[in-house]
Design goal:
This protein is α/β, with parallel strands linked by helices. It is built from eleven helices and 18 strands. The strands form five sheets. It has a five-stranded parallel sheet with strand order 5-4-6-7-8. It has a four-stranded antiparallel sheet with strand order 1-14-15-16, covered by helices on one side. A four-stranded parallel sheet has the order 10-9-11-12, with helices on both faces. Strand 4 (59-65), helix 1 (71-89) and strand 5 form a beta-alpha-beta unit.
Amino acid sequence: MFAFFKGSAARGGAISRRAFGGLAVAASLAVLTGCGQGVGPGLGPTMQPTGDAIGSGSIKVALLLPLSATGNAGTTAKAMQNAAELALSEIPSADIQLVPLDTRGTPEGARSAAQTAVAGGVSLVVGPLFAAEVSAVAPITKAARIPVLAFSSDANVASQGVYLLSFLPETDVDRVVSYAARQGKRSFAALLPQGAYGSVVEAALQRSASANGGRVAAVVRYDTGADALKASVAQLGGVVGGTNPQADALLIPEGHAVLPTLTAELANAQISSRRVQLLGSGQWNDETVWRLAGLNGGWFPGPDPAGWQAFVAKYRGRYGVVPPRNATLAYDAVTLAAALARIGGTAGFNDQTLTNPDGFSGVDGIFRFRANGTSQRGLAILEVQNGSATIRQPAPAAFGAGG
């Protein structure tokens, strides 16, 4: 499911919610599911796609992914290409043609792919995946005035014309901290990894706590390695451990690779969810995380699971496997591209339409792009409970007037 919200503009015309059938299916506005797509015509002598073009429309959209990369990058790229193809197969009237181009997972490969895309006459670029690739692509696409819908979660690579469709750490932190503050939590602590990600989260925590009338009592950073992690948790124990913690909420924005060790150390330091409210990030949206007893009662931000479950059913029905979680990004990007192309042709890919403040709705709920290229998502608050996650507060159905 995918829809525009009211107020979008393309070619100077208003796009109403009524015109798009409410929160309904995208692009053709009448198509529901199931029809296949043809293989498009050739791309001209300058275009060197990695394989057959997907779709037969007149508007070319480049799909930049690390298709030849090894390991997880290559696996993710293939799944994203599958998701893009799945999206287009559900919109047989879409006037777009997807052109897969291999970035090889490197800045040099991404730069070459972007140059090929521009030379081949694409009107929109979907991808690439990694921050360094996005940085390499941006000067080329901006010079050609071709917008980008990229998948990196590093807000530093966003800018006008280079829009990040991904889930940003800043959005996660603001959502869970603002919710906790509304539940009466006023003093926050955080246990964060060293490095750029930890710094982004720390800055977001400081901003959000202040904006919601709270304070940050302590931020403890840790290095990888059991000894370093143990020392950091012990340091934190003086703030949130024991019978009289100085903070009433503890942010731990980690994933399944670190959380088992981390939760064990928290228990050793007598830091318990019974005394301090545990807060997570989107990295908690993982069944292996939900099975960690030390996180029971913890809150984290994430999309409504119903959208993901419906997507998995469709993807598995077509490809026989469960996709990686970020495959929905490619699905939504292509569905959005098809919808914009239907409304305004190539003129639909413009900054005014893409930054429509009412936003769009995709598999993972509502989202919108800011003028600086970052994105905002409407997320639910979920609670970990004995191996599962339940919705504690539903995701918003629309963005508020104030943002």
